[in-house]
Specification:
By secondary structure, this protein is of the alpha+beta class. The protein has 18 helices and 10 strands. The strands form 4 sheets. A 4-stranded antiparallel beta sheet has the order 1-2-4-3. A two-stranded antiparallel ribbon has the order 5-6.
Length: about 500
């Protein structure tokens, strides 16, 4: 009866301690030879019970599973495929861990804390963004006029009060009382600020936006901490909240709102100028550099920028350009899949990660495929640059593409798209950018990715070729790669009770 080599290999692997316990793999004429990190983790009795296993030998520091001539070659090949997937994943995890260590700088730690303020808001931004898009379609089509005002209220309520949520999360993240942070940030959107004049200018509700709310909550947290150490405990419950709101509130009205308003206006003006004036070049740089920014953790600095643009203009013109980096990543992974037809483990990894990549979740492809392979990470950036340049070029022509919410990317961004020329033209430009990113990422990786050499570098350090240890009166024999060794007529058949000596 012919042994199913893949099933046998899959059964052996967990019984020798799993892929992490396997340091190298080789085979001789009859035995699968393994170098195990911890031989005590292997279950010899269970191994002997696996169909197709004729015996187990532990000798000279090597763990040997007796399978018999012919069978051992097939089982070894399948066994190596199983362990190769683990090695690739382990290398990606190692790169990710080292990158995390390099990111442990004061600046990057601050950016991560900044992200912690805005990331919890993403579900509401997405939900309200989808409803705003649907409401826009109904208004443009003149449909359901009795429903659109209600949809508008539902979709816009969160954005009208987003400053309060930003203040709440900021105080929570930086060690203050969340509700006090929200209370001070609420000043930014309170209609009554229209009666306040600062620096000779009458304030406007919402002036400064999320940046003003962030600064207000940070000031409130600082004031609260100062009060906690100075106010007597008997008065703390009364004086600390009152002083926090008073001092931080006045600072917000007579300083932060004006300054943050100027910064917010500059952000919106700069983003519009960047794409309408230098669109193709700006898209090239932004789309090509976004994956490295993600690796360095610097992409988190863009979260308040996106939120500011959405609050000001209704959509962020930067997000669709940056989303092209994911398209380049998908194209690069597809090229690796096509080039390495014989690498079952890597192709399995790509198949499992590709759907998430198409929906804008690129981390499985980054750390599981392109980054461990090296050069495909760079060619993926090239694809992102091409897609970004495509969208930037159309922005120069007046076809700006924006996203009404942050978070989703790839195909998942379609329901959140908005622009100057209507939903059809906006979706067409974005789709063209995605296709450009896919195509250039694929072509660059296929031609310049050097994926075979990179994959070979990740292959087992010991090949499936080994010298057959022979008795003193016989020379050793070498099993050529890819061939099935013929049984030695002088070698007795292996059995579970008396495995042959080599």
């Amino acid at each position: 009866m012919r042994i199913d080599s893949s099933s046998t290999a899959a059964a052996i692997l967990p019984l020798v301690g799993g892929p992490a316990n396997v340091l190298s793999v080789a085979h001789c004429m009859t035995r699968l030879r393994l170098d195990l990190a911890d031989p005590s983790r292997a279950d010899e009795e269970a191994l002997r019970a696996v169909p197709g296993v004729l015996g187990v030998v532990v000798a000279d520091g090597a763990f040997q599973v007796v399978l018999g001539p012919g069978v051992v070659t097939r089982v070894t090949a399948d066994f190596e495929k199983l362990t190769a997937a683990h090695r690739l994943a382990a290398r990606g995890a190692g790169l990710k861990a080292r990158q995390r260590e390099r990111n442990a700088t004061p600046l990057k730690s601050a950016l991560r804390r900044l992200a912690a303020v805005f990331v919890p808001l993403v579900p509401a931004l997405v939900g309200c963004g989808v409803l705003a898009g649907a409401n826009g379609l109904l208004l443009n089509a003149g449909l359901l006029p009795g429903l659109t005002p209600a949809l508008s209220a539902v979709a816009s309520g969160f954005m009208a009060l987003i400053a309060v949520f930003v203040g709440h999360n900021t105080a929570k993240e930086f060690g203050g009382t969340p509700v006090l942070g929200g209370a001070v940030a609420a000043i930014v959107v309170y209609p009554g600020v229209a009666k306040v004049t600062a620096f000779g200018v009458t304030l406007a509700p919402g002036q400064g936006g999320v940046l003003g709310a962030l600064a207000a909550a940070l000031l409130a947290t600082y004031v609260e901490k100062q009060c906690r150490g100075r106010v007597p405990e008997t008065l703390d419950v009364l004086l600390t909240p009152a002083l926090t709101v008073l001092v931080a509130g006045l600072g917000t009205l007579y300083g932060l709102m004006y300054a943050a308003g100027a910064v917010s206006a500059a952000v919106g003006t700069a983003a519009n100028w960047l794409l309408t004036t230098t669109g193709a070049f700006a898209g090239l740089l932004l789309g090509g550099l976004f994956l490295p920014l993600v690796m360095l953790g610097l992409h988190q600095a863009l979260i308040p920028v996106h939120t500011t643009l959405i609050e000001q203009q209704g959509y962020s013109v930067l997000l669709p350009v940056l989303a092209m980096a994911g398209a380049g990543q998908v194209g690069a992974a597809a090229a690796v899949y096509v080039r390495l037809r014989d690498d079952v483990a890597l192709r399995t990894t790509i198949r499992s990660a590709l759907p998430a990549g198409l929906l804008g979740v690129g981390e499985p492809l980054i750390y599981g495929v392109s980054l461990p392979l090296g050069r495909p990470f760079l060619t993926a950036c090239a694809g992102g640059a091409a897609g970004g340049a495509f969208i930037g070029f159309f922005a120069m022509l007046g076809d700006r593409v924006g996203a009404t919410a942050i978070g989703p990317s790839g195909w998942a961004l379609f329901p959140l798209l908005a622009g100057d020329r209507g939903p059809g033209a906006t979706a067409a430009v974005y789709a063209g950018g995605l296709l450009t990113g896919y195509a250039v990422g694929f072509a660059a990786t296929y031609v310049f990715g050097d994926v075979r050499a990179a994959a070979a570098a990740l292959s087992p350090t010991t090949t499936a070729t080994a010298v057959e240890a022979a008795p003193p009166d016989k020379p050793g024999r070498l099993t050529p790669p890819g061939t099935t060794p013929r049984p030695d007529p002088a070698t007795p058949p292996a059995t579970t009770t008396a495995p042959p000596a080599h």
